[in-house]
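Amino Acid Chain and Its Fold in Token Form
===========================================
Scope: a single protein chain, as residues and as a discrete description of its fold.
Amino acid sequence: labelled as such and written in the usual single-letter residue code.
Position: the record begins directly beneath this header, with no further notes in between.
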Amino acid sequence: MNFMQNNQQPVEAYRLFFPLGLIGGCLSTALWIFALFVQKGWMQSGSVLNGYPAAIHSEQIVSLFFLPIITGFLFTGLPRFTGTPLPSLQFLSAFFAAAVLIFPLSYLHNRLPLRALCMAFTLALTAFSIIRIRTANWQPRHLWLVIVGLALGSTGYLFMLISDMTNQTGYFRAGRLMLYYGMMPGLIFGIGSRLIVPLVAEDNTRMLWKQKAESIPSTKMQILSALFLSSFLLDTVKELIPGSLHGLPIPAVLRFIFFAFWLISYFHIMEFKKFGGPLRTGILVSCWFFLAGSLLTAAFPAAAPHFGHVYFVGGISLLVILVMVRVTLSHSGQELLPERKSIALWIILICFIGAALTRATAHLMPTIFYTHLAYASFLYITALCLWFGRFGRFFL
């Protein structure tokens, strides 16, 4: 029996993986609230909250929040993009069980089991994507970035495993960059270039936008992919051979050029009049935060761990959460009116902007640093809970 093919009643993967990702986002971000309690002496520290839990938080936000949600997008959207059947319930159940297992592993002091499982998970997603894209009668070239992103994610986890086994921290740093700035944008651009058309384009431009994304010349796609991948090759050289790039942020600059070109060309972020209403406005804001965060990390490498939250919170997280609205409403047979008039979406947008700016500037106020981390965490969790309160019933 082919478990990748559904021969029974279709199962919508987003109903399983979106709620799991929302829970993961709350848990991974709540660390900073408890870190404040420890810092104030209001609770005892433990193995997870011993000191500054940035390393655990940064891995959890990828493995507990982003990975389940992007899995829901892939298993829901990729079969439709490629004209292939939806995955079977047994296939989805295996991935769901693995995604749930990642949760307890993410709290272990020994990071090797978590990273090994995450690498296996991303490799399995890569295999699924390759098979579905190759099987399709028509292969839109923007989907290449799905495979590129997953390949970077798998390599990133492999590098982190090598670091665990050899104690060479350069592999860890290079692998982490592949996860944050490689896997996540690759998947968002690969899937989002198709989804942005029904989300934003009006009837008179919808076909033009769709054709532009699906008919990218092969040579152009190869050049863009090479530019993107070369940034991580340079990152690896920089991390393994200290001083090799003389401290110049060349990899970050290359990525910014790629991000800017893609968002302007295929997400149409310069066409401001197209982005009206809370959902479309939020998408536009998230794309510009994405670029602003990328530029800030390139311009101020020493502050990249802080300014990177403009990119991740105001950019990636907000964009993912907003696109989840359309997927949830359309696939559950609901009207799309909330996209244009929902007060909840405006509040969610404000919360994400506030969380991004509060976290990105927290290091500028060292005396209340942990307090600002907790404020940002509270806003982030509030946005996720409000999202679930408004749209969660459509998972049923």
